[in-house]
Design a protein that fits this description.
Layout (H helix, E strand, L loop, with lengths): L2 H6 L3 E7 L2 E9 L3 E5 L8 E2 L10 H10 L3 E6 L2 E6 L5 E4 L14 E3 L4 E6 H4 L19 E6 L18 E6 L4
């Protein structure tokens, strides 16, 4: 296949962030599943431990150490699932986590060994543009999922925005219809 054909065949891009700084490039996902981990011997997937080193705060260093086996993202017929393979919870925000067709500010905790459908294709077709973005930081994308390792954010946490979380992922879904 040509490189242009391959570029068109990925179902999402993954961006890794430390606080407000993106680390490394966008990682295109071509396979139906992707392991995202910090340090997994003989593992295949997106290894966060191999990303360029930059000066890090102690909270970032501590949280990076908690990622461990990380997560498995899986594209299924009904949506995208995240399986928490680490020893610590992950926290997820997605526009399809709520039952109503509006912007979701809900952050769900996924304990180690559990999974969550982080994006529902059917629900995504019913999402209406938000009227009030006061509680959002950054642009609104109805086809993105945000996952934080070990630290939650939102109205129930000391961190109000995901950009205050030490280590997090942004899953940018391509056209899924």
């Amino acid at each position: 296949m040509s490189s242009s054909s391959l570029a068109q065949n990925h179902w999402c891009n993954v961006a890794y962030w430390e606080l407000r700084t993106r680390v490394g490039r966008l990682y295109p996902v071509h396979d139906a599943s992707l392991s995202i981990f910090y340090d997994l011997p003989q593992g295949t997937g997106f290894c966060l431990g191999l990303l360029p080193l930059s000066p890090r705060s102690t909270s970032v260093q501590r949280t990076r150490g908690k990622i461990g086996h990380g997560i498995l993202l899986s594209k299924e017929p009904d949506g995208v699932w995240a399986y928490n393979r680490s020893q610590h919870p992950i926290f997820v925000n997605s526009p399809t986590l709520e039952h109503h067709p509006y912007l979701s500010l809900t952050v769900r905790r996924v304990m180690p060994g559990y999974s969550l459908k982080v994006f529902d294709y059917e629900k995504s077709c019913q999402i209406q543009p938000p009227n009030d973005l006061v509680h959002m930081e950054g642009p609104y994308d109805p086809n993105s999922v945000r996952i934080s390792f070990a630290k939650g954010w939102g109205p129930c946490y000391s961190r109000q925005f995901i950009t205050s979380c030490p280590c997090w992922l942004e899953i940018l879904l391509n056209n899924h219809r």
